[in-house]
Write a structure and sequence with these properties.
The complex is a heterodimer of chains A (456) and B (165).
Chain A: H1 9-16, H2 40-55, E1 58-61, E2 64-67, E3 70-72, H3 75-84, E4 98-108, E5 125-130, H4 140-145, E6 152-157, E7 160-172, H5 175-187, E8 192-194, E9 200-210, E10 213-215, E11 218-233, E12 237-238, E13 241-242, E14 244-248, E15 254-255, H6 263-266, E16 275-276, E17 296-299, E18 309-312, E19 322-324, H7 342-349, E20 352-357, E21 363-365, E22 368-372, E23 382-384, E24 390-393, E25 396-397, E26 413-416, E27 425-429, E28 446-451, E29 453-455
Parallel strand pairs in A: 3-4, 15-16
Antiparallel strand pairs in A: 1-2, 4-7, 5-6, 6-14, 7-11, 8-9, 9-11, 10-11, 12-13, 17-18, 18-19, 20-28, 21-22, 22-27, 23-29, 24-25, 24-28, 26-27
Chain B: E1 4-5, E2 16-19, E3 28-32, E4 38-43, H1 59-66, E5 69-73, E6 79-80, E7 84-88, E8 95-104, E9 107-109, E10 124-127, E11 132-136, E12 139-141, E13 144-146, E14 156-164
Antiparallel strand pairs in B: 2-3, 3-4, 5-14, 6-7, 7-11, 8-9, 8-14, 10-11, 12-13
């Protein structure tokens, strides 16, 4: 036999559709997920199930409840039904009651505008995710490397939506029995027929026709009706291509350096991109350590309480280096690790300026005049930072002691408190003589006061 | 009694969430506790500096806002009008003045007791949306003397902290 000459590569691609991308081929050897397949038999079986397990047609025969058998009318049976008008058993005894059905036609549902587009290479899919994936088993390596939980996805080609027509015939001995059966079947019209948890199809029965007739000296009560099921069909495979395809999402995406490229165009789940490296330009590299949650932890203050603060550390379980307090504010003047936001930053580091007149003294205690520094709602939690208080009188700077808290000479003023809160008031000393410190303030005098606040 | 409830390694609990209209941007980084309640901190990644109360302040922003700027001026630096002298401090478009202190020949000038943009009993005030200083010439109000008439030899010192818009 003459050996066939190999086809050139370009012609092979045309003839056999090219070489499959082996990166997308997944082994299904240990897979517990079955390929999806819906055939005509599944639709027929749903009718059998629904009649036998849901409608359960029965008749009362001589005081006993008798289950009405359901049978699929194969061609031989159907020919007998057509010829004689009824069915006989192997002993030529007429079978009543009985229900027989037969699929008569199938039509495409044109009102549903979705399709697989190309049977050889379907383009439209339903996707579903397997809830548990063995790829996601917990291990130390995954957490150390910051590997993402992978998701196991299955794509199933879009089915063909069809309408299946069935011809059904019911025989009974008495009209009373027939009425009950028709009542039940009619009640089931419009519902989804099929086994729960499996395939179900919507049903439709337009009308029931009474075909009662006399035959061989006997009267047979007979009713025929057409049953429509709105079904869908998808074969397990077509032309050696399985219609259920497995995908696994990437386990890790590393972005090593900054880039002005569009990352979204490089990241493609189908190719299972694991690492994206752009090394041009900088020598800086991220460490590629575990997820951020390992270095941030929540803190609660009592059992059963919700998490309040966020603590940041450099090693897992290590010392807290920064704390984000739940209310945004440091807890005390020694809460050195608390992170500051804009609101708190302004409170602590923005200078406060007041212009008061000499008569705005809230009290005159001996020779000391007190001025409220107007901390307002912060009075209970904050105070004036010692060393930050500056006072000028009519444009001239006044002098305080180094700690600003004592009134000894040469202080013109010092920092004091109200009856409730400490370090919230300015005290200006009155001067007993021209040579002693302090000033005796009058209404027209103006005090220009500047200070910073701190946590009490 | 357990005081700490630590984040377990490898868990999916999220303490941070990027906020953006774009998938790959994090214009604002929000911090949350495990119940996804926000703690009052966020990073204004897009702007790089704080403008909202919850925004975290970085070192650069802190220096910019809270360091005290001190400049000396002469009369020639001011534009003179009939009743006042006005000085443009040349701030960036995103900056404005948060608080200010003005001294002339070491004598401190005061703004109005009603606020630093008011003219009532003011030696100076802020105009142009907290961006320019208006120093008033000597005038009398309520039988009291305010303002100062400058000469070319006067030394004007202005200290201020910045706010940002």
């Amino acid at each position: 036999m003459a050996r066939l000459k190999p086809l050139p590569r370009s012609e092979r691609r045309i003839k056999y559709g090219g070489v499959a991308n082996r990166g997308t081929i997944k082994t299904r050897n240990n897979d517990t997920v079955k390929n999806v397949e819906v055939g005509l038999l599944d639709v027929d079986a749903s009718i059998m199930y629904y009649f036998n397990n849901v409608i359960k047609p029965t008749v009362i025969e001589q005081g006993e409840e008798v289950k009405v058998p359901l049978m699929y009318a194969n061609p031989e049976r159907w020919a007998t039904i057509r010829k004689q008008g009824f069915l006989r058993d192997s002993k030529r005894q007429v079978i009543t009651p009985v229900i027989a059905f037969k699929r008569t036609s199938m039509a495409k549902r044109t009102e549903i505008a979705v399709d697989k587009l190309d049977a050889n290479d379907p383009k439209l899919f339903y996707s579903f995710e397997k809830k548990y994936s063995s790829q996601n088993r917990y291990n130390r390596f995954s957490t150390d490397q910051g590997i993402l939980p992978q998701r196991e996805l299955y794509n199933v080609a879009m089915p063909d939506y069809v309408t299946l027509n069935y011809e059904c015939v019911i025989w009974t001995a008495y009209i009373e029995q027939m009425n009950k059966i028709i009542g039940k079947v009619n009640w089931a019209d419009g519902s989804y027929w099929g086994e729960p948890g499996k395939l179900k199809f919507q049903s439709n029965i337009e009308s029931f026709e009474d075909s009662t007739e006399m035959g061989e000296g006997e009267r047979f009560i007979k009713t025929t009706f057409s049953l429509q099921l709105y079904g869908y069909l998808v074969p397990e495979s077509f032309n050696e291509k399985i219609n259920t395809q497995k995908f696994i999402t990437p386990k890790k995406i590393d972005i090593i350096d900054e880039t002005d490229m569009s990352v979204s165009s490089l990241f493609n789940p189908n190719t299972k991109t694991e690492t994206l490296r752009v090394t041009q330009g900088s020598t800086k590299k991220n460490s590629g350590l575990a997820g951020t949650t390992d270095f941030i932890r929540g803190k609660i203050y009592s059992v059963g309480q919700e998490i309040q603060d966020l603590e940041f550390t450099n090693i897992y379980g290590g010392e807290t280096m920064f704390v984000m307090r739940f209310d945004g504010a440091p807890t005390s003047s020694r809460d050195f690790k608390a992170v500051i936001n804009y609101e708190q930053g302004n409170k602590f580091y923005q200078q406060n300026t007041l212009v008061l007149s000499g008569s705005q003294s809230s009290s005159l205690s001996g020779t000391t005049q007190l001025y409220d520094l107007q901390l307002g709602s912060d009075s209970s939690s904050m105070s004036v930072l010692t060393g930050s208080l500056q006072v000028s009188l009519n444009g001239t700077h006044m002098i305080s002691n180094t700690n600003q808290m004592t009134s000894e000479s040469p202080a013109d003023f010092f920092l004091t408190g109200s009856s409730t809160y400490s370090q919230t008031h300015l005290a200006v000393l009155g001067n007993s003589s021209n040579l002693s410190p302090g000033f005796n303030l009058v209404t027209n005098d103006r005090l220009h006061i500047t200070y910073q606040k701190t946590k009490s | 009694m357990r005081e700490f409830l630590q984040g377990y390694k490898g868990s999916n609990r999220k303490f941070m969430a990027p906020v953006s209209e774009s998938k790959f941007n994090a214009d604002v980084m929000e911090f949350k506790d495990t119940n996804s309640n926000r703690v009052p901190f966020q990073m204004a990644n897009q702007k790089g500096y704080a403008t909202r109360n919850a925004d975290v302040i970085n070192f650069g922003d802190g220096n910019h806002r809270y360091s005290i700027k001190r400049n000396n001026y002469k009369l020639s630096n001011f534009s003179e009008e009939s009743t006042y002298y006005q000085l443009n401090l040349g701030l960036n478009s995103t900056d404005n003045l948060d608080n200010i202190s003005v001294s002339v020949n070491t004598v401190k000038q005061a703004f109005s007791p009603k606020g630093n943009t008011e003219t009532f009993e003011a030696d100076f005030n802020l105009v142009d949306n907290y961006r320019q200083v208006r120093l008033y010439k000597k005038y009398v109000q309520n039988s009291k003397l305010f303002g100062i008439t400058l000469t070319s030899s006067d030394s004007i010192q202005i200290e201020y902290q910045l706010g940002r818009t």
